[in-house]
Design brief:
The complex is a heterodimer of chains A (473) and B (471). Chain A is an alpha+beta fold. Helix content of chain A is 37%, strand content 21%. Chain A has 14 helices and 18 strands. In chain A, the strands form five sheets. A six-stranded mixed sheet of chain A has the order 1-2-6-3-7-17, with helices on both faces. In chain A, helix 1 crosses helix 14 and helix 4 crosses helix 14. Chain B is globular. The chains are: A alpha+beta (473), B alpha+beta (471).
């Protein structure tokens, strides 16, 4: 394999073949079902699946077949099969559904408007996760054209990832036999912390989401008449929250939310802390330079994010906006809790503990109810075989000029534990082109094109080496 | 004065003269300026003032003169003078502005529609405080009809009470000299706790409204990548609120709010607690499982009237449940409504809040405390013996039991204001609002028989005032 040749091909292919269709894809407002109640009648998800499928078909890759699965009421699944010289399948996972618009796009930019500026392609679904489909096809196309053998490759592109992949288990049952034995699962949907290195995600946190509601009054009462007699629901919710989170330290007070952090992850955190330094927190849009992270220990920050539980309050109900605030004791306060949990922890057990901690002995006999909506396990990478480690090292050295960086992440990708369960012998490569300023879920989402191209090159390299290894063994 | 005659006249006057005009008044959405940014353009406040003035003038009260004051940019004030038979003046205060709609009204009811059901008149501004104007005029009209002498009366009807009486000081400055020597002030904007007696307020809490904001980020970050590294603004908010209020007990941690409660008020609370019993909290719209903050009933009353409490009444920076997404949000702001003891200067509490909340910000987050409004509380000086006697007498005649003085937990900003302006005057805060009135909430209503009784009481008080002057 000639890296120079590969880079040149990928560069051209991105410019000539990918960008025109990718731009078309950006224009489709194919929001995930959670954010588009009429997604089925709108048909944007299916339109996007067709756009990608037709484009893949047009690339003249021998034997490539596509199929769009669509069961009534379920989002479509784009399935692509490319025969290869070994049956040791590489399963590439990605998603075509997008997050909603978000406020605050720069002038001249917009979620459904592809714009290239300073080597970045702006638009919703560019970094998360549309680029992945194009990158995988480009990688195979190169190998085919350079006559480098590759194994059988399956692409699963779902349309429901941002809605907790709720339709994927159904389809997975459907296509599992067709897929066969999976050697490697490749997921290009995680992120990078800079654009100088190949980042590999070694763990993911799980998540529990639910609504905590404290109800005391049947109707609002003038606060002058009642305050001091009946407790405020906001105070009761503060008190109830203090059963699960220490307000001063942020520590989660449920023992089931903790796991022993493996030594290798502690080492990873220390190594990455040295590389990233202050970027660990300065990559966030901090308000001024004065805002301090939770601790000054940088490796601890990384472990906080990936191996420790954290609580975020992401929504509220029962409280009017400040402009409409009156002088009343409101009947209820509800908060949407989002609890990230470490790998190895059991979300069902935590949900039970959470419910118990929140609901037992409700203060003042208030109606305290926790309604869980989402419960997803975390994930820690199964041990990577030596040859694959070497492969990743080779790819990183060749296209980034440095060793790959391994790090546990804080987000949750429900599909990864799902795929691991379906394919227990598979090895996992989780990486991605989204990085600083990609703003995946916010305004001004963008893909840094040079990074996408490097990831494309690495993907081609991995395909080639995997085939070489399996053919040899 | 013949109570039977008075009752008869007042009941009839309410039915035939007041109700038609009152219903018209209910139809006017004359929301207080704070709740209607275009109030000046809408002109509803002016419309209500004109309606009241015109109605009052039609009642043939000798010498009655009305004038609507209206300074550019300020809500109007309706001012009436009734010469009476003695120049020492009684000031009757009420307000015509209304609270906004607030939430969903029950089927068949509407804030701007007058509906009578089970002796209650429903609609916004019925109990708070539209009835008071009609009651004041009716009380005087009764004396005219029965040829009973009374003192000079001035009626002050403001249109910004629910906006913290923001325009009243301006008009009071102008009116002070024409009001004359005010020795009695009746303010019919408070409530009663049962229908067995006349209730007179002897203390009010102060109030502070402010926004507390905690900002950590300029834009949202994904909660997966940022949580554990960047502190959550909601947690910082909890930390800050913990500095001013114990979340376990609700006790205020503000030093400036710790006052020694006067013995007489403690005794009054004990007496009242015995009388009201569990109704102190059972009258509130709570489910059967809900317990009050303590089982000690007199402590509950003191909590409500002499202790500081915190209510978080609004929030910003956080989406509603449907739009909640997994983000570490840049900021959380809470609207704080703080009640302060009657004798505490709210400025002092605001200063303490500012210091406690913004000193040593956790994680150096940007904390801003923006006070929007504060008003002092009020504790009554002794009521003169003749007046106590009269109040007991009218309470017995029209309600059945002697009157009760009670400290209230709300704030009527105008009372400390009038107290300051007329320090020699006796102030009688009373009113027809009962526990089912739901002022400031959906389904506001006035219990009409109570309104009639209050009107009778006011008429008697005005007559007694004249008799006392003559002695």
């Amino acid at each position: 394999m000639q890296p120079h040749h590969l880079s040149q091909f990928v560069n051209q292919f991105w410019g000539n073949k990918i960008l025109p269709t990718f731009s078309e894809f950006v224009r489709i407002p194919c929001k995930s079902p959670l954010f588009d109640a009429h997604w089925e009648t709108n048909g944007h998800l299916e339109a996007a699946a067709h756009t990608l499928a037709e484009w893949a078909m047009a690339q003249n890759i021998p034997g490539l077949t596509t199929k769009i699965f669509k069961t009534k009421k379920r989002t479509p699944l784009l399935y692509v099969e490319i025969p290869g010289v070994t049956p040791h399948t590489v399963l590439c996972y990605g998603h075509l559904d997008k997050m909603p618009e978000a406020e605050g796009w720069h002038k001249g930019f917009g979620p459904w408007k592809p714009v290239i500026k300073n080597s970045r392609l702006y638009g919703r679904g560019t970094a998360d996760d549309g680029y992945a489909f194009f990158s995988i096809i480009a990688a195979i196309k190169y190998l085919h054209q350079a006559k480098i053998p590759y194994s059988k490759c399956i692409i699963l592109f779902e349309a429901c990832e941002e809605t907790d992949s709720r339709d994927l288990p159904y389809y997975l049952e459907h296509v599992k036999n067709r897929i066969g034995t999976v050697d490697i699962v490749l997921c290009l949907d995680t992120g990078s912390h800079d654009y100088h290195n190949l980042w590999c995600t070694t763990s993911l946190r799980g998540i529990i989401e639910g609504t905590l509601k404290v109800h005391i009054l049947k109707a609002p009462v003038h606060s002058g008449v009642i305050s001091g007699i009946i407790a405020s629901t906001f105070r009761v919710i503060r008190r109830v929250l203090s059963h699960i989170e220490d307000a001063h330290t942020g520590e989660i007070l449920l023992s089931s939310c903790y796991t022993k952090i493996p030594q290798e992850y502690k080492q990873q955190a220390r190594a990455i802390a040295k590389i990233l330094g202050k970027k660990i927190y300065s990559e966030f849009p901090l308000l001024g330079k004065t805002v301090k992270p939770i601790t000054h220990r940088k490796d601890e920050l990384l472990l906080n994010r990936s191996w420790r539980p954290t609580l975020s309050i992401i929504g509220a109900e029962g409280l009017p906006h400040i402009q409409d605030a009156g002088s009343v004791l409101r009947p209820l306060t509800a908060l949407q809790l989002s609890l990230r949990i470490p790998p190895y922890c059991h979300p069902e057990k935590i949900t039970r503990d959470l419910k118990k901690a929140l609901e037992t002995n409700p203060p003042y006999g208030a109606t305290v109810h926790f309604q869980p909506h989402v419960s997803m396990a975390g994930w820690a990478m199964p041990k990577m075989e030596t040859w694959l480690k070497h492969t990743l090292k080779g790819a990183a050295q060749m296209f980034f000029g440095s060793d790959p960086l391994y790090l546990g992440e804080g987000g949750s990708i429900g599909v990864i534990p799902l795929l691991q369960k379906a394919f227990p012998h598979a090895q996992f490569i989780l990486t991605g082109a989204s990085g600083p300023q990609s703003n995946e879920h916010g305004a001004n989402e963008s893909l840094y094109l040079p990074m996408a191209k490097k990831i494309t090159c690495c993907t081609a390299y991995i395909f080639a080496k995997q085939c070489e290894h399996r053919k040899g063994s | 004065m013949n109570p039977q005659k008075t009752k008869y006249f007042i009941n009839q006057f309410w039915r035939t003269s007041i109700m038609p005009a009152f219903k018209q008044y209910i139809r006017i959405p004359c929301k207080s300026p704070a709740f209607d940014h275009n109030w000046e353009k809408h002109g509803y406040l002016m419309q209500a003032a004109k309606l009241m003035a015109k109605w009052a003038e039609a009642q043939k009260i000798p010498g009655l003169k009305s004038k609507i004051f209206k300074t550019q940019g300020k809500s109007p004030v309706l001012y009436l003078e009734i010469p009476g038979h003695h120049k020492e003046t009684t000031l009757l205060y009420c307000h015509l502005d209304k609270m906004p709609e607030i939430g969903h009204w029950s089927k068949g009811l509407h804030p701007w529609k007058a509906v009578i059901k089970n002796n209650r008149l429903y609609g916004r501004g019925t109990a708070d405080d539209g009835y008071a104007f009609f009651a004041h005029i009716a009380a005087i009209k009764n004396l005219v009809e029965q040829k009973i002498p009374y003192n000079r009366c001035v009626l002050l009807v403001e249109a910004a009470e629910e906006s913290s009486s923001c325009d009243l000081p301006h008009y009071l400055k102008k009116l002070r000299s024409v009001m004359g020597k005010v020795s009695l002030i009746i303010c019919s904007d408070v409530g009663l706790h049962d229908d067995k007696r006349l209730w007179v307020t002897n203390a009010l809490r102060g109030t502070i409204k402010a926004t507390l904001s905690v900002k950590v980020l300029k834009g949202a970050a994904h909660s997966g990548t940022a949580s554990g590294i960047i502190p959550s603004s909601f947690r910082v908010l909890r930390q800050l609120l913990d500095r001013i209020e114990d979340p376990m007990t609700g006790k205020s941690l503000l030093k400036s709010c710790h006052v020694t409660i006067p013995q007489e008020h403690k005794r009054a609370a004990q007496k009242l607690a015995r009388l009201l019993g569990k109704t102190i909290y059972t009258v509130l719209p709570i489910t059967t499982t809900i317990k009050p903050v303590t089982n000690n009933l007199s402590e509950l009353l003191l909590n409500r009237t002499w202790r500081s409490t915190l209510c978080v009444t609004g929030i910003a920076g956080i989406p509603d449940l449907q739009n909640a997404s997994n983000a570490l949000r840049p900021e959380t702001s809470a609207y704080l409504s703080i009640r302060t003891p009657p004798t505490v200067k709210p400025e002092k509490v605001v200063r303490e809040l500012q210091k406690i909340l913004t000193d040593n910000p956790p994680y150096n987050a940007t904390i801003t405390f923006t006070p929007h409004f504060h008003a002092a509380g009020w504790a009554a000086t002794h009521i003169a013996p003749w007046l106590t006697q009269v109040l007991n007498h009218v309470s017995l005649s029209y309600f059945g039991k002697p009157m009760l003085q009670i400290a209230e937990g709300g704030n009527v900003g105008v009372i400390p204001l009038l107290n300051e302006m007329f320090p020699q005057a006796q102030i009688i805060p009373t009113g027809a609002m009962d526990m089912q009135s739901h002022e400031h909430a959906p389904d506001e209503s006035l219990h009409l028989p109570t309104a009639h009784k209050i009107t009778c009481c006011l008429s008697e008080i005005l007559a007694a005032k004249y008799q006392h002057m003559k002695k």
